[in-house]
Amino acid sequence: MILAAKFLDVSSVTSHTTHLLIMFYIIGLGLADEKDITVRGLEAVKGSTRVYLEAYTSILMVQKERLVRELAMGLQTRVSLSWQAKEAFYEKPLILADRDMVETQSDEILHRADEVDVALLVVGDPFGATTHTDILLRARALHIPTRVIHNASIMNAVGAAGLQLYQFGQTVSLVFFTETWKPDSFYDRIKENADLGLHTLVLLDIKVKEISDENLARGRKIYEPPRYMSIPLAVNQLLEIESIRKAGILDSDNTLAVALSRVGGGEDQRIVAGTLANLANHPEESFGEPLHSLIIVGKRLHHLEVEYAEDFAIDRERWRMVASKVYGCALD
Amino acid sequence: MILAAKFLDVSSVTSHTTHLLIMFYIIGLGLADEKDITVRGLEAVKGSTRVYLEAYTSILMVQKERLVRELAMGLQTRVSLSWQAKEAFYEKPLILADRDMVETQSDEILHRADEVDVALLVVGDPFGATTHTDILLRARALHIPTRVIHNASIMNAVGAAGLQLYQFGQTVSLVFFTETWKPDSFYDRIKENADLGLHTLVLLDIKVKEISDENLARGRKIYEPPRYMSIPLAVNQLLEIESIRKAGILDSDNTLAVALSRVGGGEDQRIVAGTLANLANHPEESFGEPLHSLIIVGKRLHHLEVEYAEDFAIDRERWRMVASKVYGCALD
């Protein structure tokens, strides 16, 4: 009996996928563009009656006219066209849903998902955001069967820098500071990792759906363009907190770090390595397009990690020197 | 000029991919079956002159006759058929390469990779194993352009248990103990994570290419079937070391853990949650097919994590009781 089941199981892999169960799918899109969806994910999209695309930025929500007007505006254009590229590629109309909608109107997304297949497409892997566990919990409460289709996310693609994944401690987020608000709990987390010699992945902030003071005062719901934290700004914020907390874990000249952008293996992937000072003084453009992430290198650093990441170094000499003298790596 | 470049860049996404540069690709296959490859990965496979499939187990290397003879043997059959399924699906003959070959004969794999596209397919994400950074370094030394196509790996798909990825510390591996060899450095790593309240992902051992004492004595190079560590065995090994080291981080009745198997969102995915005692006493079969992983739950546990994972609990009452009384989670 078990044998028969196994044969069925195996043969079903080669034949066309037919499933009788109606599903709510959350499908990871990976990190670069619409071709990073998996074949299984693409099949689920094509079989779904409604397909939602979770938009990172409110800019995806603008009307067609504005899209055309903004054709010359760099990133926004890119993101918008990329949405149209996705729609064409997936051969499905996509319903854009911003993070707010996924959070607050999950019942609308789940509407009739027990009668027809519904898919929610998200950047990276579905379990990268708590929002997605929330909507899965809601589906469960409504007795709607769910299926998650995994993909790469920054949590594992960060390996592209050559630093080994098992040498990473907890991941932290860094938000935009204002004059009066400089949340610094990330510093304790980096210190905990650093004390153990572990690397820290730092995810940099995005600001979307901001309304300027002027528009707010006039009651106009006009959103500012999205803002993405740059690597030099991130490094300066880290050093600002170090100068206040003074635990000695982040040093301009003696702490190594690696900046990552668009880690999808594509042509626009950028990986840049150096001391914190190297990164802070490097031109913003050279770090590539957002989103950006930053790795603070821990002291358990292995010489093979140094050699692999050396290829991305702004200043190879300095990279090797600090790895050897400060981190104690035995290099050739 | 920048604008023109952006337009080109964007339009290339929608048109058919044509690249002039010859490449060595390492392509992640994700976690479940051949349909977890990305569309970009599938294109690269179809465009490559030689395609290697890194085999987890030596059993993939056996001759066709033996494959047929072993058709009735469960997992081996499954793995073998799965290899054939891949070959049919990718429309390419696959050259099987075991981990040893990728490590020691990388130049053979890279042969003429500066003249024709060559692809190496690996389970999960390419940066899951140091072997793959080694072969990328070797390609770099030979001036062969490389491209990594990412995919899901256990390092991010572990989120399927409902425990948040940013609450994980460093990942550890657990090897099969023998009478005389019980390496326990994993214990220090789990303790470091536990002291910070973080979860630990424990990857369980696989034994391949083992030769029995009898065959070794007779000089016969006959490999034993691969062995995969089961969840009950893993838990017993953990508790054995706790009983020696006595740091009080692992307790049968008061430490929560989650077992994962085939986390690809597929029909054979299994997630089982409970105390260490719950897991140790649960029938081996109920944990599903190998490979297995285990999460040791840390004390920073959030009540939403408890509620999500509760659905996988062997004993819901006990799961909630320990989460509330021992971990201090405020539950409804």
TrEMBL record, chains A, B:
> Where are the coiled-coil regions?
none
Gene Ontology BP, a term: protein histidyl modification to diphthamide
**Annotated pathway:** Protein modification; peptidyl-diphthamide biosynthesis
Tell me the InterPro entries matching this sequence. Answer: 4pyrrol_Mease, 4pyrrol_Methylase_sf, 4pyrrole_Mease_sub1, 4pyrrole_Mease_sub2, Dphthn_synthase
Gene Ontology terms, MF aspect:
diphthine methyl ester synthase activity
- At the top of the EC hierarchy, this enzyme's class is transferase
Alphabetized PANTHER family for the sequence: DIPHTHINE METHYL ESTER SYNTHASE (PTHR10882:SF0), DIPHTHINE SYNTHASE (PTHR10882)
Protein name, entry field: diphthine methyl ester synthase
UniProt source species: Mycena venus
